[in-house]
Amino acid sequence: MQEEIVKNIILGEDEDYIINVGPQHPSTHGVLRFEVSLQGEMIKKLVPHCGYIHRGIEKMSERLTYPQIIHLTDRMDYLSAHMNNHATCLCVENALEVQVPDRVTVIRAMLDELTRIASHQLWWCAMGMDMGALTTFFYGLRDREKILDIFEESFGTRLIQSVNTPGGLMNDIHPGFQKRVKEFISYFRKKLPEYDNLLTGNVIFRERTNGIGILSKEDAIQYGVTGPSGRASGWSCDIRKTDPYGIYPKVKFNEILMTGCDTLTRYKVRVAEMYESMNILEQLVDNIPEGDYTAKMKAVLRLPAGEFYQRVETARGELGVYIVSDGNKTPYRIRFRTPNFSNLFVISKLAQGYKIADLIAISGSLDLVIPDIDR
Description:
about 45% helix, alpha+beta, three-stranded antiparallel beta sheet
């Protein structure tokens, strides 16, 4: 057998060395490919390539009734499943001018905040692991399990529940829901400082994130980078504050705004948001009104002809639902404005001029969920 000869690759000064990160790279957390042009270790240019798991959710939704669409929205950003359901239900309810019971409004907000914490926990443990801190993965999953147990007890599933439905909820919460939420808050308030002790103050972690991947406020607005990534650049874009919905106008919480603009700041915003979500839960847990868990709805929902839009704040930013109705039981057109799509494409700007190793930290700080991009 002839031996294979590996020759040195010699590049001219005007030639780029191109490598592909993905589409099956563990740090992309999904099927995504970065085409990276390098000059030595430095990134000259980065082009994201997505679409590997495109499922045509928007087109499929145009053939489904409004209650059926809820089950597809779970599958976009599956770590914000409750919020995706919530946005779609609000859009349909507003179009039908349906007033849901107060009990539903409070429970929906509690489920949103539990989902937000669970999502940030998973992001924290995965980002730490990507950068070599394997222990974070066990700590984060340990705490996230507490929330998934609450979901399972009330709704029978752990990751995606589809418990929201136009008019209210599929079923009421478990009698032990409030007790379990209180136990979780008490537990997690003691555990969350461990995150700072373990990772936030770690010298290696700070050296790899501080001053890396600068996103200015102007660029965040220009690219439509919302959620914690946008707020780490000083952009006030929390939909719960700027365009409040549900019970949020009646609860007290702070929008976490920082101006560091780098990878470390985006990390800090998410950790701080977990404290704020617990503050919201504490205000609501003893104030769940009695009553029905759903409004009376017609068996077949037909939205009036027209255009309708609703947006909510998911764990990764602004999710918008745009429905065009021609009066039938299925939408004529439905479009989702998802946060991950906008948050992805700014990475070309963030990574340029930094080392290839920095790409892992920058990507982790954006907390991307790929099925939300491809839909």
